[in-house]
Please model this.
Amino acid sequence: MKHILDPNEAGIHFGRYLEALAGYRHRLSPHVAQFAGDADRFTLNHPKSLHDAWLQSVVVTETRRTAAAPSAVKVELLLLGQHHDRVIRISYERVSRYGLHGQPGERCAADAFHGDVLTHEVRVADTGHTVHEIAFVTGSVFTVECEDFIVADEPILESDGEPPAPAPC
Model:
């Protein structure tokens, strides 16, 4: 993280991140710029927030080069929303770099290897590509550099039409 977290200071520095984002927002696609600055995606108790979401899966798809098209990598990330009422699907297109550094942590019985999302930030790499970095409470980090990405919220409903109750910590 370059803006929203500082290893020398505690806490999430959303204001600093927004100041930095103002300087490079014009270099992002319009929908990524909207996502990057959407306070709801960072608010600690908002259903659309990535904060406290759980990693469900990371899928990497590679297509081989053909005469008509170059090889390409797509990464899809699925997060269970913090209220457990939605899946947040992030599809990264034309990926040039990605990494997942995982380390286990246990804060409560509901935690898994990566734990909850702590925060995330969008920035522009020196290459001009978009970077999305997600930090987890355990210290795990997911980073992807790509040309574009799309975020979709997909509601989860129980058989009675109600969202499921979140697991207690």
In short: The mean pLDDT is 89. The longest strand covers residues 86-101. Helices lie at 14-24, 30-37. The two ends are 27 Å apart (CA to CA).
